[in-house]
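Hi there. Long-time user, first ticket. I'm pasting a complex I've been working with (about 980 residues overall). I'd like to know whether the download I got is complete or cut off, because the file seemed smaller than I expected. Thanks.
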Amino acid sequence: MKRLGLFFLVAVAFVPRLAQADGGIVRARETRGPFLITIFTPSEVFTAAPVEIGVMVQDRETKQVVLDALVKLNLIQPNESKKQGEIGGRGPMTGHTMRGDSKTMHQPSIIRVTRGQGTNKLLYSTNVVFPAAGDWSLRVSVRRDHDEATVDCALPVVIPTGRLVDLWPYLAVIPVAIALFAINQWLRRRSANTIAIQSAQMSSPAIATL
Amino acid sequence: MSPTAQAVLTSWSLDPKLAFGLIVLVLVYLRGWRVLHRVISVRFPVWRLVAFLGGLAALCIAIASPLDAFSGLLLSAHMVQHFLLMFVAPPLILLGAPLLPLLRGLPRGFVHDGLGPFLTWSVLRRFGNALTHPAVCGLAMVVSLCGWHLPAAFDLALRSPGLHKLEHACFFGTSLLFWWPVVRPFPSRPHWPLWAIPLYLLAADVVNTVLCAILTFSDRPLYSAYETVPRLFGTTVLSDQVAAGVIMWIPGSVIFLVPATILAIQYLSPARALLSPVRSGIPFVVPSRRPAVPLAASRRFDLLTAPILGRFFRARLGRRAMQAVLLLIALGVIADGLFGSQVSGTNLAGVFPWIYWRGLTVVVLLVAGNFFCMACPFMLPRELGRRLGLGGRAWPRALRSKWLAIALLALFFWAYETFDLWNRPALTAWLIIGYFFAAFVLDAFFRGASFCKYVCPIGQFQFVSSLVSPLEVKAREPAVCANCKTHDCLRGNDQNRGCETDLYIPRKAGNLDCTFCLDCVRACPHDNIGLLVTTPGADLIRDPVRSSLGRLSRRVDIAALALMLVFAAFAGAAAMVDPVAEWKNQPLQWGAIPALPFTIFFFFTALLLLPVIVIGGTTLLGRVASRVTTPARELLCRFSLALVPLGTAMWAGHFLFHLLTSYGAAWPALEQGADHLSIHSLGDSSWIILSPGFSATTLLGLQILLLDAGLLLSLYVGWRIARRCALHARPALALLAPWAGAALALYATGIWIFLQPMPMRGMVMTAMLR
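Hi, the file is complete. Here it is re-exported in full:
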C-alpha cells in the first residue's frame, strides 16, 4: 500500500507535466468528490523566490468552473515532521526579504488561496516562498457548502542555479550599449575623415585652378 | 454578468516593462507625428496615427488580455492571440509609417549624433535592404508560421514561458517583415513591382490555408498539451482545435485577400501613377543636429507654462501650501515619534521619513528636479527667524564652502548606522526637531540662505543629485537677460526677493545650489525665467564659470561632496544586506573591538579613504598613461563629479526598494499614530497590506536598469570629459580606462548588493497577515 502511494505520488508528480496555464504546468488533475481539481505550478520550483501555485476547481459533472469554493493549501516537507509553519502565502516581494525578518512575520500553518492573486481569475492562486529544497508534498483542500475534497501531489523544490542567469537581459545592457557607442564613434570618425579628405581635395591647387 | 464571465474578462496582465516601452513608443510617435502632420499633412494624415495606435492596441490585447491568460487552456484563444500578433498588429503599425515620426519624435541631437551614423552606415543599409526584400520577408513568415505550429515546437513553447514569449516575438517580428512589402511604409522603396504583391499575398494565403486545413480536419488532437488541461465552456479538445483552425483560416484568408484585391485594383487603375509615388520615394536623410532656425530656449518645454501646474508653482501660495503640507506631516512624525509606539515599522517617524520621503524625493529628482527643496518645511522656521530680525550678518568667509556640509553628512551617515535611526522613532523625531532649530537659529542670525547653501545635508544631497535631473531654472531667452540692467533675479526688488543662494540666472548653469524656490521667477520683471527641460548630466560635461560657484573643476569641496555621496550610496545599501551586516558584526561579537571605534573606522574607510584612494588613484593613473597636461586637481574634480549619475542611480535603486516593498504602510501607520494621539476618527489600524503587483524579479530588474542607466551616463560623461582633455581618441581612452574600471567595479558592487537578501530592519513588510 505504501509503495502504491509512493508510485501514485511519483506518477502524479512527473507524468502530467505538460500543459501550461497562467505561466505554469499541470502538476495534478484529479476527480475528488463532486469536484475536478487541477493544480498548476511553474515547471521548475525554486527556493528563495516566490512561486505561484494555482488551483482550478470544476464541477465533476458539468465541468463548470467553481468560483465560490474555499481552497486551502497545505505544504508538507517529507521525512520530517510537518513544517507547514515555515512558509506562508505572502505577496511576491516577500521572497526577496525573507531572511532576517521571519520572526516578525505572522505565519499561518495552512494557506488560504483566493482568485484575486493570479492573472487568470478562474484560478485560485497564491505565491509561496519555499525556505528549503527537497520533495515537498502539496495538499489542496476544496470545500463548498457540505462538499469537501482533497488532492495531494509531490512538489520537487530545487535550489536555483543562479539568479544572474535570469537577469542577463538587464546585465547585457551595458556591454551592448558600450559596443554600440564604440561603433558610433568609429563611424563618426570615419565620416569626419572622409569629409576632411574631400574638402582637402577640393582646396588642392589643381582643383582650385579649375 | 455571470461570475465566470466576470472572471474571464478581468484576467488581464501587462508586463510593466512592456507597458513602459509601449508608453514611450506612443509618446515619441505622437511627438514626431504632430510635427510631420503640420509640415507634410498629405503624407501623415490622422488615419496614420489611428492605424499606428490601433496596431499597438491589438498588440496589447494579444499579450495582456484574457487571451493570453487562457492561451494555455484553449487552443482557440491561443489562435486568436496569434492572429492578432500576425495579421492585425503588424500591418496597422506599418500603416502608421512609423519610421519618420519615431525619428522626428526623438531628440534631434540623439538622432543626429547617436542614430545618424548607423542610419547612414552602408553595411546596415545593405542589410536592411536585403531584410526587406519580399523573398526574404515571405520566407521568414512562412518558416516562422509553419515551424512554431509543429506539434513538438508548439508543446515546447507551452511548457516554457520563455519559449512562449520567443514564439510570440518570432510571429510578430516576421509578420512585420512580411507586411513590409505590402504596406511599403513611407519612405521605403519597393523591391518588386506592384503587380507582384497580390501574388505574394496569395502565396502566403495558400500556406496558411494548408496549415489551417490540417488543424481543422485532423481527427485527433495535434497538441498534446491541451489534452491534459481542464476543459472550459463545454468544449472538447477536438472542437477547440477545429475552432482554432477556422479562426486562423477564414479571417486569415480575408486579411490576405483584401489587400491583394486592393493592390490589384490599384495596379489596374489608370490613376496608379498619381496614387503611387513610392518608387521615387524620398530617401532617408538624417536630420541636422540643429534645426534650420535655432531652437530658442523658450521653445523648450517649460513646466511653468503648463496649464495648472505652472500657475501653481509660480504662485507664492503654491509653495506655501506645499510647505504647509510637509510641515503638518513633520509635526505628525515628531508627535508620533515622541509619544507613539516605538516599533519603527508602525510609527509615522519610522515610515514617513525612511520609506516614503526618501523614495519619493529620489523619484522626483530623477523625473523632474529638486522639488523637495521647493516644498521644504524647514524654510518656515527660517522665515520666522528672519522676521525676528536678530542678525543679518554675513556667513563667515571661512565657512563659504561645502566642507561643513560634508562633515555633517558624514556625521549623519555614521549616526544613521550607529544609532539605528531607521529603527528609533524618538531619535528620528529629535533629529527633525534639531533640523528645525538649526534652520531657525542660523537664518535668524545670518542673511540669505546660508543654511541651505552651506549647512543643510539634505540640501547638499538634493543639489548634487539634481545634476542629473531633467528640469532646471533657467532664462528662457538669453538675449533678454543681456539687455537687463536691474538684475532683479539676483538682487530682488520691492515686491520680491532675489536669489538667496546668490545665483545670477544668466550665468547659472545646472542645478547646483538651486533650491527651486522660484524667487527669481517672481522677481524677474521680464517674465524670462522658466523651469526648462535640460539633458540630464549635460552640466557635468561642460565646465563654465558658474554664478556663485566658479568652475566646478576648481572646487575640490564640491568634488569631495559628490564623491562622498556616491560612495555613501553604496556603503549605505551594503550596510543593510545580510553578508555585510554579519561581517560588520563579527568583530563586535568577539568583543575584541568596541562598537563605536569600529563603526567610525567602517564609515571613515567607506566614505573618505576609499573614494580618495580609488578615484584619486585611477584618475592619476589615467593622467600618467595618457600624458595629458590637464592639472591633476582639475581631472580629479571633473571625474569625481562624473560619478554622480551612478551614485544617484544607486540611491534610487536602494530607496525604491524600500518604497515599493512597503508602499502600503502609510495609512495603517497614520491610523495607529492618530490612535496614539487619541484621534479615533480614522478607525483601527489594519495591517493587512496588499502584495505589490510586480514580482521580485521585476523589482530587481528595475534596480539593475537604474544602475545600468547610471553607469552608462557616468561613462558617457567621463568619455566626453576625457575627449575635452585629450586631443585624440587613443589618449582619451587611456585617460578614461582606469577611472571607468573603478566605475565598473562600483556598478558590480551595486549589482551584488541588490542580489543579496536585504532585511528591512524594522520596516513594515508587504504582506503582514492579520
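A couple of notes from our side: Chain B has 36 helices and two strands. Confidence is low (pLDDT under 50) at residues 274-286, 291-298, 687-692, 760-770 of chain B.
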